[in-house]
Amino acid sequence: MSGWSEKDIPDQSGRTAVVTGANSGLGYVTARELSRRGARVVLACRSEARGTEAGDRLVTEVPGADVEFTRLDLGDLASVRDFARGFPYDRLDLLVNNAGVMALPYGTTVDGFETQFGVNHLGHFALTGLLLPMLLDTPGARVVTVSSEAHAMANIDLRDLNSERRYRRWIAYARSKTANLLFTHELARRLAGHGADVVAAAAHPGYAATNLQETGPRMAGRRFVERFMAVGNRFFAQSAEAGALPTLYAATAPDVPPDSFTGPSLAGWRGAPGPSWRAPWTVNDRAGELLWAASEELTGVTYDVLKAV
Predict the structure, then answer these.
(1) Helix or strand (DSSP H, E) at 222
(2) Alpha-carbon distance 133 to 118, whole Å?
(3) Which residues does residue 45 pair with via DSSP β-bridges, in sequence order?
(4) What is the 8-class DSSP label of residue 121?
(5) Cα–Cα distance between 172 and 133 in angstroms, integer?
(6) 167: which DSSP letter?
(7) Are 301 and 125 spatial neighbours (Cβ–Cβ below 8 Å)?
(8) Four-residue CA torsion sign, 228, 75, 244, 241
(9) pLDDT at residue 99, as a whole number
(10) What is the pLDDT of residue 10?
């Protein structure tokens, strides 16, 4: 894994990938590099204008790329179901659960969930469940979910998943990222019990310059914080290209272990992909089971094809 870069991505010809939030930042780089290696890539984005523009830009950067935009709003379960129902291909080799929001002012999704929990976890939980039959039918398929080092700030609160008692934007973000890791852990456990060869893994970008850091302060009208985040992105963060490498590694490198967590190798901050530390509560079987049950109840998406172990 030492020194691994985008040049080490294996040939992806014949593979079909879905990348959520692929219109900018880490998602765009992930989609572009998969396309560059020959994959057919679906850009699953909320905004039709930004998704279409991203597709046009990608084809300019990678002439001949097999890429298309399909609308997906992870904050609207009807949109998630429409995306899965309308998926036009007979195979799905890779699902990259990349899209996310960070440290937003309190708000709710279309379905009434706290926005960060709803988008970052529940939307991806529902999407993965609806696409799982196709993943199971595709040899060597993978599900890669993008979490964050910020998960270490807070465990989930199973009594208050939607932050209805008290909302603190960074704690809510951390809990949603813990949920991503617990989801990966429980999905990997259930896949193993089912005897499936689908690999569920997680990744994080370290400190990478994307639009996430500035969006929350901008929405809250906190101009000083927005400018502070912009300065951090410019002078301290690594590029989106570097930040996407752990995701690309988890998605394409040979022999990626189930339930692994890949991040930058230098203190989890920057550098080539490597195994990343994760909080012990993200590998707790009982917590994973309880979050799974709650997520099925909240979304109405049940993973009937996988039996609990």
Answers:
(1) none
(2) 23
(3) 71
(4) I
(5) 31
(6) -
(7) yes
(8) negative
(9) 98
(10) 97
Query: pLDDT value at position 307?
Result: 65
Active site residue 249: no
pLDDT in tens, 278-290: 999 999 999 999 9
Q: Is residue 212 within 8 Å of residue 271, measured between CB atoms?
A: no
> Distance between CA 132 and CA 290 in Å, rounded?
20
pTM of the model: 0.90
Helix (H, G, I), strand (E, B) or coil at 248: helix
* Calpha distance 69→231 (Å, rounded): 32
Tokens 């199973």, residue located: 158
Task: Report pLDDT for 229.
Answer: 40
Residues of the chain with pLDDT under 50: 212-220, 222, 224-235, 268, 308-309
Active-site entry in 173, 207, 249, 303: 173
Q: Take residue 147 and report the two structure tokens written for it.
A: 């979490």
What 3 state SS string does 71-102 have?
ECCCCCHHHHHHHHHCCCCCCCCEEEECCCCC
pLDDT value at position 309? 46
pLDDT for position 209 = 54
What's the confidence (pLDDT) of residue 271?
76
Distance between CA atoms of 247 and 163, rounded to whole angstroms? 29
Half-sphere exposure (CA, 13 Å, Cβ side) for 45? 24
How is residue 175 written in tokens? Answer: 């809990």
Give me 195's structure tokens: 């005897």
Alpha-carbon gap, residue 307 to 286, rounded angstroms: 16
Tokens standing for 106? 């309190």
Backbone angles phi, psi at 45, to 5 degrees: -135, 155
Asked if 237 and 297 count as a contact pair (C-beta separation under 8 A), the reply is no
C-alpha to C-alpha distances, 255 to 106, 201, 235, 250, nearest whole angstrom: 40, 11, 35, 9
Q: What is the DSSP secondary-structure string of 4-55?
A: --GGGPPP-TT-EEEEETTTSHHHHHHHHHHHHTT-EEEEEES-HHHHHHHH
Number of residues in the chain: 309
Would you call 199 helix, strand, or coil by DSSP? strand
